[in-house]
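Work Package 3 (structural annotation) set out to generate three-dimensional models for the target panel prioritized at the project kickoff. During this period the team completed the workflow that converts sequence records into discrete structure tokens, so that structures can be stored uniformly alongside our sequence database. As a representative example, we reproduce one entry of 218 residues exactly as it appears in the project archive.
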Amino acid sequence: MAIEQIPVSVLPEAEEGKPGAPKAVQRAGSRPAKAALQVAKKPPPLPEETARRPQLLPEREESRAVLTRPDREKYTIVQRPLPTLKELLPPVTGSSLGERASNKEGPVRLDTQDPKYVSYTTSIKRAIELVWEYPEPALRQGLQGKLVLEFTILGDGQLEGTRLVRSSGFPILDHEAMRAVQAASPFHPIPPWIGKTRMDVVASFEYHDNRVRYGIVP
């Protein structure tokens, strides 16, 4: 039998990537090309989580604001300067200052010769002399002595109080002098020219030779 000869022509190899180039034939047994990776999408949040997130975020921001944000009003109050004593006290007029200065001069002696007080202290002495007596028991026993009293007269002449500065040594004589001052009150109101709302008076009372008299305050 005769062998038929088939003519075969050899084509030149075509470069890959050029148009008209035949596609490479996948050989048997070769690994398939890797498919493009797909980015996994995050599943949508559940309805409970979606409702929960808007509530948590404001709470965190609010708590952070409370901790980090300074309380300006608080610091403003602390930084205010404290008021001075002069600002707290009520305004003092010139007349009030004069009255305070005069009240701090000390007690006025009942036997003073100061023209400012002499007329008023004389009226006080006369009022006391009308009720001051030598106690009968002291006369019988021959008790004598000298004591010093201090008493306060208010602006309207009322007696505020009586204090025994120095005792005579005999309570019966001390009590009689204090009784006489209290019985003589109220005195005349303090004259306006003295310029006092209250006046302290100091006086010496003597019991001597069956007589009572004012002495000189030592």
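The first strand starts at residue 108 and ends at 109.
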